[in-house]
Amino acid sequence: MRLVKIGLASVNTTVGAFGANVDRALKLALAMNAEQVTVAVFPEQVVGGYPAEDLIQWHGFVDRQWVELERFAKATAATAMVSVLGVALSHQGLRYNCAAVVAGGKVLGLVPKEKLPTYNIFYEGRTFSRGYPGMDQQYRAPGSSVSVPLGDQLFAFDFGTLGVEVCEDLWSADGPMRRRAYAGAELIVNVSASPYRIGVDGTRRELMATRASDHQCTLAYANQVGSNDGLIFDGGGFLNQNGRPVAEGARFKEGYVTGVVDLERTARLRTENTTWRLDQETWATTQKPLPIRGCELKTKREALHYPTPPNRSFFLPASAPRRSPQEALCEDLLDALALGVGDYFEKNRVFTQIGIALSGGRDSTLTLLIAHRYAQRARPESPGSLLQCFYMPTRFSSEGTRKAAEVMARELGAGFAVVSIDEAFEREMEAAKKMLGDGVELTGVTRQNIQARLRAQRMWNWANTSNGLFLQTGNMSEKAVGYTTVGGDLMGALAVISNLPKTLVVYLLEYLHQKHQYQGIALVTARPAGPELQPNQVGEEELMPFPVLDACFYLFAGEKLSPAELLVALVPMFPERSAAALKADVEKFVRLFTQSIYKWVQSPLSLHIGNLDLDRERALQLPVVTKTEW
Predict the structure, then answer these.
(1) Structural domain includes residue 402
(2) Global confidence as pTM
């Protein structure tokens, strides 16, 4: 047996907080060493934080990372443990996103990332250079006389041969893992900063099993946790041996998980798998061997025990309870969004409380519940003390929404204040009429927008004096078609649910009501959704049924269907709605969608939770000025 204990750390980093980031990693490293971990794996760019975006163009931002990496190496010198962690460096005028192998107080080698994503939310091809097969160079830090191997290489330890790679390298079937496994790597480590998106946990789990099975290796994956700007990282590492899951880390919180593997099993399975052997032979006869860096570190593995199932049976399934699909979706989404709110609140270090314009509607109610979820972790003794809600009625506001808002705030223990804007509404209408001149009447849309802008203005005034984080509460469906007011309900410091479609907002509220039986949610959902900016206003009557709207958004913006194709897809999807009505829905959606792009670019930073959203810097980049002749 060659038993190896592997630790997978999820670290909550902040971009540019070099010392604090390394301190967090060191705390976990020393804890893992105390548990006799052999190989400790940390996330991508754990030293500098991820994503650094264009900060990587500053020499100082890059050079400081090496200083902190060496500090990590010295602080772990007395351990009998190998560490792999992510770092950025500058070499011959180029920037590289690397995995650093550290042991015995030294940086043994650096392996650059080869697959640089420049799609969806990623821009790495803009700033980083790629590693490549056969790369074999020497890196020398500024002011240092010591060179460190940089390139496509493996590392030999007393427990076996180690290969390392960075994040996206795992996601490509033609990634470096293949040649490194053929070259002799038994344990391959992936340092990652992979953002959360709906369903990604299952995708990663399947990918880990596929890659470990394809390449007949033991595969260890560590992921960043926490939120930086609008990106949310869910952590949750995986350890998989030749396709068999061994260990899985907790998500949405900093920490680590460990697992023991017998690398002799990996070696044995390679000898038994004739397909892998033949493929390896073909590779070996056509490719140059990779350099293998040796290390004399003596690891402590004598006390390790052979990995056995918790129920002491290799044949019976585990008895761990599984979450229902509804619970898995809702809990993950709520955890992700709460983490996004919390890290934005804490890492900025300027906010003292969180403020929400609570209308008694679905969107602001869900936003409050997400903020409360974070507050429960931050202030478990009094979560409501972190939250301040404002109900700002006009003559169009109903007693029903006021009661719903008040009950919801009371149930959560949040501050609640009623501040009417009706008098200010009247004054602003008169002022607008004077600006327009005699005989010109305000349009209905203008009267609605005045109310929304007054509410936003008062929220900003409150935030300025109280150092409050003003949360924007709009959803993705209404944002997509411009059913929102520039300078009004589109405003805020952080958009919490702006990438949640309306149907998902309703689904989450139903789930939270089932789980907690909040009376406030029941009062909110008892009324049709509408902004109450004019009498008897119902959103679906002014737009279209939200399921239809969300389907239009997904098919047009996500699947890139033409309007004609969109209609073909919708007719069998909504048989209860006539083809003529659906045709009108499609025409309205496409018209409103393309007319509203100018609004999206003025919206606040939003939390990203899927492959499709309306944050122009993240996922869907469309020109503001465009024609629709196509």
Answers:
(1) yes
(2) 0.95
